[in-house]
Amino acid sequence: MPVDRKQALRRLCWGVFTTLLFAGSADCDLSLAVQSPPMVIAKAGSNVILNVSFAGAQNPLIQWSAGALPIVTWVVSPNTLDIAPNYAGVVSLMPNGSLVFSNVQKNYSDTYTVSVTKSGFLSMTASITLLVFAPPVCSVQSANTNLNYTCQTPGDTISILSISQLNKTFSTSGSLSLVVPPAQNLSGMAISCIANQINITQSCSVTAQAPQGVAPTVSSTLSNGNLVVTITCAIGSVPAANIIWFKGSQVLSNGGPYQISSDTTQLNITRLNLTVSDLSNYTCKLSNPFGPLQNSIQLIGPTISDSSLISNTAGTMVTLTWDVPSTSVFTGFNIQMEGPALQPSNGTNQRRKRDTGGFQTIAVMPSSARSKQISGLDPKSNYWFWIVPLAGSVTGPPSQNYSVGPECNSSLSVYSPPTVIAKAGSNVTLNVLITGAQNPIIQWYVGQLLIVNRTVSSSLPDIASNYTGVSLMGNGSLVFSNVSQNYSATYTLNITKIGFCPKVINVTLRVFARPVCSVQSANANLQYTCETPGDNVSLLSFPYLSDTTKIGSLSLSVPATQDLNGKGISCVAFQINITQSCSVTAQAPQGFLPMVSSTVSNGNLVVTITCAIGSVP
């Protein structure tokens, strides 16, 4: 068989050249082979190689270009590589001349030309088109009362887009938009968009979500000497909910002390000092195509909800810990002490100063603090500690009064749990038992308001005028008769006696009113409503109508079926550890004849015809 000497020479030359590429011993015609297809398809973010190989000449110059722009120039010997600045960190070169893209992005889509040149040899060139596709971008927005699902591949008109879960529509323009009714099964369902990009497929997904029944949160800061209270309405609804803010029944807008964020999720209240008016019920009413929902929060002043004190065995150090209610407005804490001066932390035995009497602030803690270690105590002396919450310049009621030392003999035992739950209209007792001191002073507070004060056991207590419904038992327990919801508060009991360590205890009373039921017409349907005004804890349910539950207010619209005519429909309110209910009965119009009555008024005959009523609604 005849031998192609030129082909054999090229094969021999290639083997020699690739073996001695950097040492240099080959001397042949240039050749350039392309292993990649003419068009390389890649996903954005992937690593891509434009595969080529060269042979036939010693130490050629390899250059890759995008159009007229050289992006990589490689002189094999000396081994120098020059990369264009806007391709640095993106491209690199393999020893065989292949161009490597790392984490390639869509904007690197182009036709790339490689050339192999050597003085005295015929140059060789080849081109490869790189097409990089980014994944599609999904979103869902409100379109009046509907959902608008959108899928886009910006700057890309090749991808074929589809959202098969919604319908069979395809788009080749780089953008697909579908408007659909907000069916309840779409809430929480991931809707995917598929992009077919020549020979690859990429996708994105988006999940629409109805507004959630999560209570708002509150935070407080100081800014330029002002107290700024921020209430954040729990977010998470998709599309983003439209939010309207209320203080009680008053609609709030930007102006004065109130500032609503651009996305309406936050309400900022700016005051020089916290006022009683600021401690109100705030409601955010959310709505997106899935429907409305409202969440409320009742702000309270600076308050300590729980606290403790632990002393070391030597009696020289104590650790205070505390917590605050989630609805409290506060910016920091004063740690106060009564007793002899503390020993300096450097351990020097300085003479201790006498106790000057009264509580003094020994540390100021930021709002994030929940503990404080105090050292340098004299184990032979008595000390008293408490934590005072602050909201700017306003102080709240102190925590329980803690005492350490050898002379604290009085004790306070509490029968009531830290929180007492009661139904409105019931009689409630905050039970305590005081032992260890005869005839102490007993004082009950709400915040800084003294509501009951008894100086000796035989005297009648002084009771604040707006708390005439309360009384004091001989053991110091506080009794509420026919208690109403507005008496919900944290009550602080102070017990003092000269020569004894004072005691302080907090008991929270939560009074829940019964829910209120009603039924109204909603076009051709019945709308059952159950509410617990001013209560953001009660979980409401119409068990006969639906499994749906809501906090504070529940409204259900149902067809006016005949089985509902004359049937009492109950709403159940789950209120922590108690349950209360209400009921309402819808009634069709009754077939009674109208009634007639006649009178004479100012010389005129007045005939009145009354249609028998009784239908509900």
Description:
With 617 residues, the protein is mainly beta. It has 5 domains: 5-133, Immunoglobulins (Immunoglobulin-like, Sandwich), CATH 2.60.40; 137-207, Immunoglobulin-like; 217-298, Immunoglobulins (Immunoglobulin-like); 309-341 and 358-511, Sandwich (Immunoglobulin-like), CATH 2.60.40; 516-585, Immunoglobulin-like. 2% of the residues lie in helices and 49% in strands. Strands 2-11-10-5-6-7 form a 6-stranded mixed sheet, with no helix packed on it. Strand 12 and strand 13 (146-152) form a beta hairpin. The protein starts with a helix and ends in a 7-residue tail after the last strand. Residues 1-27 have low confidence and may be disordered.
Indicate the CATH topology of the largest domain.
Immunoglobulin-like
Work out the number of β strands.
54
CATH architectural designation of the largest domain = Sandwich
What is the average per-residue confidence, as pLDDT, rounded to a whole number? Answer: 85
Task: List segments where confidence is low: pLDDT < 50 over at least 5 consecutive residues.
Answer: 1-27
- Structural domain count: 5
Largest sheet: 6 strands, mixed
Rg, alpha carbons = 40 Å
